[in-house]
Amino acid sequence: MLNINCFSSFRHPLLLPTVANGRSRRRSAPGGARPAPAPDRNDRGSVLVEAVIVVPVLMVVLLAVVQCALWAHAGQVVGLAAAEGDRTARTMNGGPAAGVAQARSIVSGGDLASSDVVSEILPGDLVRITVTGRAVSILPGLSLPVSSVVVGPIQEFRGSE
Predict the structure, then answer these.
(1) Pairwise CA distance, residues 78 & 36, whole Å
(2) pTM of the model
(3) Per-residue pLDDT of the chain (161 residues; tens, 9 = 90+)
(4) Structural fold of domain 49-153
């Protein structure tokens, strides 16, 4: 039968602790090589100093990323409001007032700090809806504007001539 623990009784002489002056220590390697010296203790507290410097920088970067996401979201809301306002204003039973009302209803449900909707009739039976606003700001002193303009032809029924 094979004894799995056949090497458990073997001990290497360099790994055995020796006792000198009542203290336990490891033997040095043959040839007089000494073990590596203990690290200096002059770097105590360096992790705290690094954290004090790095954590605020990371927080500002994180807030900037969130601010960019809010700005992009506000741009999407304004673009959707302008497109839907233009679609409503161009329909047969719509008109510029209905387009403005539709755009305002979309903007009021979105996350914008402020917004304004303007419509106008252009020459050539075109309607233009302009939606402007400001994105919600989480960084103090930063106010990012967003706007969207959509122009389209007014739909009307024309009988055969």
Answers:
(1) 66
(2) 0.66
(3) 555 555 555 555 555 555 555 555 555 556 666 766 666 667 777 888 888 899 999 999 999 999 999 999 999 999 999 999 999 998 888 888 999 999 999 998 878 888 899 988 888 889 999 999 999 999 888 889 999 999 999 887 767 76
(4) Pantoate--beta-alanine Ligase; Chain: A,domain 2 (3.30.1300)
